[in-house]
């Protein structure tokens, strides 16, 4: 039944796309969940690669949550977030959830956000660095915020 559902959804998406009608997000979620249920990960990868499903924060979060079933889904979710114009905060949170504190700060710097983001919490980053028990990491994070404060 699930394979048939995927085929029907795919054809429906193709028809909607041909008519330039936006595809409802809940149907895209249904497609992804059906593919995961079938363990059709290669097909899911192809649908994402060829933009059969639209980029959205909701779908990116769904992909991130599928990491235990399909490890590549995490990177696919991050990639989808990166294609969205307003997902900087979500990307930094994903990086922080993986204990990637310095990459999170580098990402913010590369986006020019380290000076303009008011809610960039030095306390949050310093606390996460402290919890790693890595003195070098803590000093690097502290240095990042000291430089930022003095600019």
From TrEMBL:
Superkingdom of the organism of origin: Eukaryota
InterPro entries from the UniProt entry: RMC1 (IPR040371), RMC1_C (IPR009755)
GO terms classed as biological process: regulation of autophagy
Pfam families, per the entry: RMC1_C (PF07035)
One GO cellular component, as annotated: late endosome membrane
Domain Mic1: 3-149
Protein name: Mic1 domain-containing protein
Species: Laodelphax striatellus
